[in-house]
Amino acid sequence: AFVDSKGLARFIEEIERTGALTGADVRVTSATGPGSGTSASPGSGPSFTIHATGSFNGVFKFVALAASLPYHVVLDAVTIEKTTSGSRGDSPWQGDVTLHIVSYLP
């Protein structure tokens, strides 16, 4: 599927729903407009950095599902690491994903 400028909000909502399905707490921490040259291919679609926290299983599943969204996306960078437990100790893993949409129509 393709994403156009009117569909970007729907794309972000789909990212957030994907996080909810995996049990990870997901939020988009930054976005870069299309053609900025900061993504892997100059002139490609918008780029997003997404932060996820939760169990290892939840964070890992989120990354896997983000890679298989029904759009042509490229994961430019992925990190998953164990964190120091918070006060409640319920989210010991975090992940950061940078992806860009290749199937973008301006």
Assembly classification: single chain
Query: Within the largest sheet, what's the order of strands?
Result: 2-3-5-4
Biggest sheet overview: 4 strands, antiparallel
Helix content: 25-40%
What's the rounded overall pLDDT mean?
87
CA-based gyration radius: 14 Å
Residue windows where pLDDT falls under 50 for at least 5 positions: none
Q: What is the β-strand count?
A: 6
Alpha carbon gap, first and last residue: 14 Å
* Beta-strand content: 35-45%
- Helix tally equals 2
Q: Find the structural class using helix and strand composition.
A: alpha+beta
Which word captures the global form? elongated
Give an account of the 3D structure:
With 106 residues, the chain is α+β, with helices and mostly antiparallel strands. It is built from two helices and six strands. The chain has helices at 8-22, 56-67; strands at residues 3-4, 25-32, 47-54, 73-82, 93-101, 104-105. The strands form two sheets. The protein has a four-stranded antiparallel beta sheet with strand order 2-3-5-4, covered by helices on one side. Helix 1 (8-22) packs antiparallel against helix 2 (56-67). It starts with a strand and ends with a strand. The model has no long low-confidence stretch (mean pLDDT 87).
